[in-house]
Write a structure and sequence with these properties.
One of its GO terms (cellular component) is plasma membrane. This protein is mainly α. Helix content is 70%, strand content 1%. It is globular.
């Protein structure tokens, strides 16, 4: 294969040929990540006529925007914590099985599918199950006289916490299971030979090693929930309890016209939050990789 070389100095050559397979990926990143991000950043500092302004950022301090931000933070933090704790326990049970176990392989495969099972399909599944005329709602009402639907909690912030946990838990399983796999049997054997009990091993060896990986996975789950939109858009038709729904209102509302650039400012706010979270995730990931390989 022919390669193009460029001289960046005496004795330095750069081969372009090996980088050619990356071009489709780089094009994808440019079109679907770089360009939208730049559009949001530029739009957040422009008015309707394209003139520079900081007025859009002032909208971020309004009561509605702060309430939506608080709702997003509460939703993301609660579902990340629920997903991290339950997912870590499930991951431990899975990793405790033999690597050749069909149950282990099947559970990891199902977790990989359920972690991506979001959006409209997930919202419809929950509505069909515990909605006002859902299968489980009707069954509980007929058999026990119980009203699990109540006052419509499914279509508010509590319902989003429950539904989001559905894909947060399996995501934690596939992210955190490799950390358990990274615990070497020799470490436990060494601890036992030195007279350590099972509790001592987990307290002084395993948990300190797993803590950075756990916190990193927790941050990843937080970012995953913070950026989710489609499921909430289907479940919540009135009000804007979280930032993504407020962005939808700003961009598509036929009542509040000229708010598209406010939507850009809200999106910029989300980008800043997610960037901070992912920087923390990568710091913890690098720390974990030094031990759990």
């Amino acid at each position: 294969m022919s390669t193009t070389t460029a001289k960046g100095g005496p004795g330095r050559r750069f081969a372009v040929g090996p980088a050619l397979p990356l071009l489709p990926f780089l094009l994808f990143v440019l079109v679907f990540l770089v360009v939208p991000t730049l559009t949001v950043v530029v739009g957040a500092f422009q008015d309707e006529d394209g003139r520079p302004t900081l007025g859009n950022l002032d909208a971020l301090t309004s009561e509605a925007a702060l309430t939506a931000l608080e709702g997003s933070l509460v939703l993301s933090a609660s579902t990340a914590l629920i997903g991290a704790v339950l997912g870590a326990l499930l991951a431990y049970l899975i990793v405790s099985m033999s690597p050749q176990s069909m149950v282990r392989r099947a559970t990891l495969a199902v977790s990989g599918v359920l972690a991506q099972f979001g959006g409209v399909v997930l919202a419809f599944a929950w509505i069909a199950t515990i909605g006002p005329v859902g299968v489980l709602t009707q069954a509980m009402s007929d058999l026990f006289g119980a009203d699990i639907y109540g006052s419509g909690w499914l279509f508010g912030l509590p319902g989003l916490v429950v539904v989001y946990s559905y894909f947060q838990i399996p995501l934690m399983v596939i992210v955190f299971a490799p950390a358990f796999d990274g615990l070497r049997p020799q470490w436990r054997e060494a601890a036992v030979n030195l007279g350590a009990s099972t509790w001592d091993y987990w307290r002084h060896v395993a948990l300190p090693l797993l803590t950075p990986a756990f916190l990193g996975a927790l941050l990843l789950l937080f970012a995953n929930a913070f950026a989710a939109y489609a499921t909430a858009a289907v479940l919540v038709s009135q009000g804007q309890p979280i930032v993504p729904l407020m962005i939808r209102q700003a961009i598509t509302s036929e009542v509040l016209l000229g708010q598209a650039n406010v939507g850009f400012a809200l999106a910029l706010e989300m980008i800043v939050v997610v960037t901070i979270v992912m920087v923390g995730y990568n710091v913890l990931l690098r720390r974990t990789s030094r031990w759990l390989r």
